[in-house]
């Protein structure tokens, strides 16, 4: 299908929004935001403001979308709901930006703590355990990918080698010059990113995984591995400045056994909550309670959630991000229920 949407000036973009029913009270400021944030990025925050139309007919086509005979569907229209304001989208964008920055703060602490957990556990076996297939999970170290002909371990080593070659850190230069390669795991782990450590954890033996997971109150290391994978997904969303607050989480974490972690029961069996970011915020908090129990992160997150923009006139609230009922007392609910 040929792309036929024309380039539009900032004024033309704003005109299109107002023609579709968006209220603009300060045109100069609105033009500034379109120039600095961009129409396409803001459109992601304007999307929940748009009208929906229910289609229930024998055969229909609306905005180029065809519906099967007898189908019922709701489609998103170009027009905005009554009362939708340009400033509402900006406020939602600012909230989302603050949320991403706060999450990155938590993930930095979690990433550093997990580097130590993994390097200390494997390093006890051998300073170069990360190079030795016999010390890792068999499928990770020996099973070959049908497309690449390489094991997951080989691909992981290639990614790590790239991180080492790119590193400008003095400690890497010092260790290479004094001792040469390979570098011990407690040194080389400092170049890992969240994805690298998550992949290596997934490639550890079951016993090693369980040992680390137990430190965080989780008995099953494979469940723990899925939590790391989901947090890595969250980290990538935040690092690329993508919309987060009501995002559909593609890489969802697995849940531990019933009764193992009390606050998990608030989410169990609730499809919408499991697919939204709030669960991952709870997981981040769970990690921080072990890594940095004196952190004020939860209080700062709670304050941000309470300050969510007032969009009740559009039917929008924190339910869109999967917030549990009574999120104002989030700390209480997570710790004591």
Description of the molecule:
The protein has 337 residues and is mostly helical. Helices cover 52% and strands 7% of the residues. The protein contains 15 helices and four strands. It has helices at 10-19, 27-36, 39-46, 86-125, 138-142, 152-166, 170-179, 185-188, 194-202, 206-215, 221-239, 271-274, 278-291, 297-306, 330-336, and strands at residues 50-56, 60-62, 65-67, 72-80. The strands form two sheets. The protein has a two-stranded antiparallel ribbon. The longest helix is centred in the first third of the chain and has 40 residues, at 86-125. It starts with 9 loop residues before the first helix and ends with a helix.
SSE string:
HHHEEEEHHHHHHHHHHHH
Overall 3D form: globular
| Widest β-sheet, arrangement of strands | 1-4
Structural class: mainly alpha
Helix share, percent: 40-55%
Largest sheet: 2 strands, antiparallel
Over the alpha carbons, how many angstroms does the gyration radius reach? 24 Å
Beta strands, count: 4
Number of helices: 15
Q: Which segments are poorly predicted (pLDDT under 50) over 5 or more consecutive residues?
A: 66-72
Q: How confident is the prediction overall: mean pLDDT?
A: 91
Write the layout of secondary structure elements.
Layout (H helix, E strand, L loop, with lengths): L9 H10 L7 H10 L2 H8 L3 E7 L3 E3 L2 E3 L4 E9 L5 H40 L12 H5 L9 H15 L3 H10 L5 H4 L5 H9 L3 H10 L5 H19 L31 H4 L3 H14 L5 H10 L23 H7 L1
Antiparallel strand pairs: 1-4, 2-3
């Amino acid at each position: 299908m040929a792309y036929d949407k024309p380039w539009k000036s900032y004024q033309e973009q704003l005109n299109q929004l107002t023609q579709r029913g968006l209220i603009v009270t300060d045109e100069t400021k609105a033009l500034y935001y379109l120039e600095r944030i961009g129409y396409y990025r803001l459109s992601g925050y304007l999307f929940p403001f748009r009208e929906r139309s229910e289609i229930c007919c024998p055969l229909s086509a609306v905005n180029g979308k065809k519906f099967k005979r007898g189908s019922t569907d709701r489609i998103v229209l170009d027009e905005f709901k009554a009362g939708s304001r340009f400033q509402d989208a900006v406020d939602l964008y600012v909230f989302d930006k603050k949320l991403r920055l706060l999450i990155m703060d938590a993930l930095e602490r979690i990433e550093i703590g997990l580097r130590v957990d993994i390097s200390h556990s494997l390093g006890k076996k051998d300073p170069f355990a990360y190079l030795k297939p016999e010390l890792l999970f068999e499928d990770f170290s020996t099973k070959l990918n049908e497309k690449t002909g390489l094991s997951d371990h080989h691909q992981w080593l290639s990614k790590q080698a790239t991180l080492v070659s790119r590193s400008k850190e003095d400690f890497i230069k010092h260790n290479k010059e004094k001792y040469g390669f390979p570098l011990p795991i407690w040194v080389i782990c400092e170049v890992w990113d969240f994805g690298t450590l998550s992949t290596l954890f997934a490639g550890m033996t079951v016993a090693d995984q369980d040992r680390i997971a137990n430190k965080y109150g989780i008995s099953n290391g494979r469940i723990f591995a899925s939590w790391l994978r989901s947090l890595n997904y969250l980290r990538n969303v935040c690092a690329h400045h993508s919309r987060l607050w009501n995002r559909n989480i593609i890489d969802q974490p697995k849940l531990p056994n019933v009764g193992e972690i009390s606050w998990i029961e608030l989410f169990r069996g609730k499809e919408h909550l499991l697919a939204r970011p709030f669960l991952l915020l709870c997981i981040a908090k769970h990690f921080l309670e072990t890594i940095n129990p004196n952190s004020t992160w939860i209080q700062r997150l709670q304050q941000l959630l309470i300050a969510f923009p007032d969009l009740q006139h559009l039917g929008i609230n924190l339910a869109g991000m999967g917030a549990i009922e009574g999120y104002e007392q989030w700390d209480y609910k997570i710790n004591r229920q």
